[in-house]
Amino acid sequence: MGKLVAFLVPFIWGISGGIAAMQQPLSTNLGWTAELSKSWNVLGPFPIHAREQQFISPSYPLNLSEPIDFNRTWPSSYADNGRVSWSKTQETEDGDLKISFPKIRWSDLRATEGWAALQHHAVLHTNLTLHPPGSGSNIPPPRLLVQLIQGSYITIVPGSELASSESFVPEWHAGNIYELDRTLPRAIELPSPPSTRSPTTYHVFVSGDYEIRLFGAPESNGIPTQTLKLTIEAESPKDSVQLEPTQDVPCDFVGGYAFGDAIGLGVRSLGGSWTVTSAESSPKLDGLTVDLLRPTTLAPSQTRIVPLRIIQTKPFTRPTLGIRLTLTSSSSKNQEVTLSASLPIKHLPAWSKGDNLSAIMGSYFYAQEMPTAYTAFPPLLDNVEHQEPQPPILCLHGAGVDIAQSFWIDSLPPQQHSWVVAPAGRTAWGLDWHGPSAKDAWASVDALSATLNANSLWHARRVAQDTPVVLMGHSNGGQGAWYLASRFPDRVLAVVPAAAYIKSQAYVPLLMSRSSHFIDPAVRAILETSLTPDDNDLFLSNLVDMPIFAVHGGNDENVPVWHTREAVSVLQTWNADANVTYKEDAKQLHWYPSVLKNDEIQAFLDSVLQSTSERQRRSKTFTLTVADPSESGSLHGWKIEGLTVRGRLGRLTVDMRTEHELRVVTSNVDRFSMLMDASNGIDSLTIDHALLDLSSPEVRTGGRGGVIVLEKDGRRWKFVASSEKTPGHVPTRIQSFLSTNAPFNLVVLDSNNTRDISLALRIAHDLNAYHRLDAEIISGHETFQERLASGTKGNILIIGNAASPSLASILQHPKTPFRIEHNVLMLKDAVLDEPGLGILFTHPHPHEVNSQMLFLVATDAAGLERGGRLFPIRTGVTVPSFVITSSRADSIGAAGVLGAGVWGGDWSWNSAISWLY
Ligand SMILES: *[C@@H]1O[C@H](CO)[C@@H](O)[C@H](O)[C@H]1NC(C)=O
Ligand SMILES: *[C@@H]1O[C@H](CO)[C@@H](O)[C@H](O)[C@H]1NC(C)=O
Ligand SMILES: *[C@@H]1O[C@H](CO)[C@@H](O)[C@H](O)[C@H]1NC(C)=O
Ligand SMILES: *[C@@H]1O[C@H](CO)[C@@H](O)[C@H](O)[C@H]1NC(C)=O
Ligand SMILES: *[C@@H]1O[C@H](CO)[C@@H](O)[C@H](O)[C@H]1NC(C)=O
Ligand SMILES: *[C@@H]1O[C@H](CO)[C@@H](O)[C@H](O)[C@H]1NC(C)=O
Fold it and tell me: Is it true that domain 734-916 has CATH number 3.30.70?
């Protein structure tokens, strides 16, 4: 799970080109220069667990609205005598900032607390001086382009004196903590204008969090060292746009035809709002057109990937594809500009062979409109005539691995008759193969099938639509393989998880948590329901009939080998005859080239792929386990569709051990469906010890498509017509907001509120950086109403003040327990008007049952910052359907939460899994 990049050659976006664009240099400053001091003050270490930085103030233990005393000491259980003080460090020659605390007795902490001790927080401080241009008069202030690598948050504080103003609320920006490739610096507005005559000093605070998963095990001296890199440049805003080739999404051509229909071009606004209104190939081509999928509007300083559709009627063989975009400024001038890109094209024969076998980079539109690439090896041979194509092998990469590098695909075994598909998972880390990364994995297979179908020249290597797959993965991807197989067992034929960890909480334990010293365990349990869908071990009951070949290096230094041993043991506890082979490669470390490429795995794949006509075996008794029905598929045709208490696990045990009799025992399930063939030859059906009448018409006709649906009515089960509307998706956790069906709408209710706009820009930046998810910023309540009227499918984030009239008008007819009374936000009897509150809650989408809204509202600027940090951009942030955070969270983390819970099935109050102070 720990990142794999240490094994890789630094990546250059050159494999299939990238766009050599005609464009200006990255930063066009009109002479402003930013000078970052090389000397830093450091305060720490403080124990925290892996995601507490989302709840705690990034400047913990400091309050940046108060003067800072560099002589003061602070309590920390890591230090001898229990207190830590400020120390100093210097940036290295190559610009790295190395943070370590050599006086701490790390080996003692590690001996008792293990890796949990290697999670800690520190505050880093330095200063930044802005020098005005030489001939300064009437020069607008610059903004900062900030690239923070491997730091969690950064803020810029005004004034040469620290904290001169009590009302100052720092604006925190997430760093690129995973060191993701191809991440643009973020634009930060200065907190106060600089002098145009003399240098102006600002203070820079960084939250530096050591995470064992990111920084790896300490070197031989046992001292954990964080290596951060911070670069800051000044950029003068100007009304224009530029191409950002690092954001482009390419697509290879096979035998002259694009292997997919999507191409993306990165564009950034340097100032002002711009809309891409048209696109064309330039020069015009015979038999190939490039169409703009939809107009794309960029907010000031925003970067988006412009979606372009390729339509081809003739082969294209040139080495580059020229594309011209036309953009219109939304300012009154309606100024028009064009941007010209020249995209190098990688041409491959249909099909490459033997020693020359090349991976193909294909493309498709994720969530309808987001250009997305994947890589794939074609099968070595054509499909066998008159036979169904063989299912593909879906291969999930480890953390930190970018599929544009050949490292991953080259580690996979090409097959005679199967495609080997390596999806991006959105980015090198994505969401650890859950949420949008999981959707990307399935969608890449669907895209491959659609692409091959669309061109008759490729039919001989076609893949069936909705094909099942064999899953394979290494490290984080091994974990992803367990995850996808156990959530969608009927779409998976077999799994090969290698060097997998079970779940994040088991990988780096949460036991050094700060909030746990303050929080009511009952409240902690409610928050942690949002981790349940990720608890792979709890869902292993779903895999008892699946052929599994699990692999782990016996000396894995990155993901300890006990993880796979334990997963196999859990599986065998459910069913001692589970079809699992465990191969422990003695003495091997985390990565070795033969981990997935060897004769044993090939023999396993051959046996699985050759017998696909026979369905998987079915045990006489098995248990289906589900946390969120909308994020889970069926097992042997059985599917849990609704839970009695949402936030708790649902289980369905099917027992066919007695002939002609089918017994089902449910736990926390109130609706499920089954394939009628599951009960073939069955005379009697007992559910929860009550006999059901099998003569009802639904059963005899098998419902629609052979599916029958059962619902609990009080204590009794009854058949319901399967045509009856299935309940829409009510998310059990805020993280599911990331799984949008179209680009996000980030709505800022008050278009005059610069902090609200900044938060929308920050979230848009993070969605792109961490997940390559596209978002449009919609400024103002009226614009939002217009957008709704024109219909929008994407998830909607509403940012605003809890007391704003526009919020009151949106919540006029409450659809959740949140409501507005006398201009204040209320939840049940709680009046949410105290300063510093950050409030997040999911809410139905106005017209799409499978989309959702998320409200991120606050009682003031400090509350907005707190709420904004809970937007779950990374795995493991414990935010269920709603959460209310307060100023107390700054120092005691999740224990400062005033309320949290999981909505009931109809967005109602669910008292079993809810809490309010
Ligand atoms: C900024 O940092 C430099 C170098 O560390 C130091 O000499 C200077 O005093 C600092 N300025 C302020 C205002 O803190
Ligand atoms: C901090 O300590 C130094 C040296 O002990 C002393 O000179 C300085 O005045 C102290 N500063 C404050 C703000 O107490
Ligand atoms: C591989 O490519 C090289 C050069 O393009 C060619 O000479 C060779 O015959 C090819 N080998 C195979 C097995 O196709
Ligand atoms: C386990 O799976 C393999 C691979 O599909 C298959 O060959 C074997 O027959 C299965 N064993 C059992 C007991 O079902
Ligand atoms: C925004 O500010 C402008 C100019 O100050 C003002 O005219 C307008 O009424 C404000 N709009 C809102 C919604 O407050
Ligand atoms: C931080 O300090 C300011 C100014 O003293 C104060 O108003 C605020 O409540 C403090 N914040 C917290 C979380 O204690």
Answer: no
